[in-house]
Design goal:
By secondary structure, this protein is an alpha/beta fold. It has 2 domains: about 120 residues, Rossmann fold (3-Layer(aba) Sandwich), CATH 3.40.50.2300; about 150 residues, Arc Repressor Mutant, subunit A (Orthogonal Bundle). It has 10 helices and 12 strands. The strands form 3 sheets. It has a 5-stranded parallel β-sheet, with helices on both faces. It has a 4-stranded antiparallel β-sheet with strand order 6-7-8-9, with helices on one face. A 3-stranded antiparallel β-sheet has the order 10-12-11. The protein is elongated. The two termini are about 45 Å apart.
Length: about 280
Amino acid sequence: MSDAGQRVLVVDDENAIRRYLHTALTAQGFTVYEAASGEEAVNAVLSDRPDIIILDLGLPDFDGIEVTRRLREWSKTPIIILSVREAENDKIAALDAGADDYLTKPFGTGELMARMRVAMRRLANKSDEPVIQVDNLKVDLSRRLVTVNEKEISLTPTEYDILRLLMQNAGKVLTHRQLLKQVWGTAYESEMHLLRVNISNLRRKIETDPARPHYLVTLNLDGFKGSCLIYYINFPSHRLQDENDAKSDGRLARQARPQKPARLRPNITHKMTQIFYLHLSAMG
């Protein structure tokens, strides 16, 4: 695995440590982001989407172990703890919270680099992710590459995470709360504006006509504890057979006149809607 282009988040309240790691990691081809507190760390993971996190435990607002717990609610990004704490209990607590490795200060740069490579290689081996394609929209999960009609599309890290999640669930519906929780974390489940803005930007990049989306569809279900938005990728098997309806009416016999493209509509039946509402009820 090449380190070039890999994004690293360094979380430490000591400016000297951050500056040293920034210089050392940049020299190895990494793109480095910094955070000096737990809150800054969580926000940086949301905005910068690092490939790996180097995390100190002694942060000014809340402990690095708590940062790890919060991130593990929705993120699988490798976390390496870098701390002066040498007690076995601290190491066990950090690893149990979800950290991938633990290195005590003072540390050798070479050893840190080796542990980073192992953590990222372990994640890559677990992933072994495929290429997912729906019509002309293709997402190469292992390369984080998105193309439409064989043309590469540049997405922000957040836009990519939304599309990846939807493509991995192609043919299924996801609620706005599910998307917010899995992309931003549990603390953001009510932040609808974040989702709306990113969905709008994503449509502008992957759709020919964002006002009439072919791929990324939104439905508003009213009548159950208010309003619930659901999102899904318009998978071919989940479209109504408008062409079959047209055949039964004899309309396709008129081939001389240009035909409007079939309008794509979600194949969500009354029964499916009932099941979906029951699912929401079970979720509380």
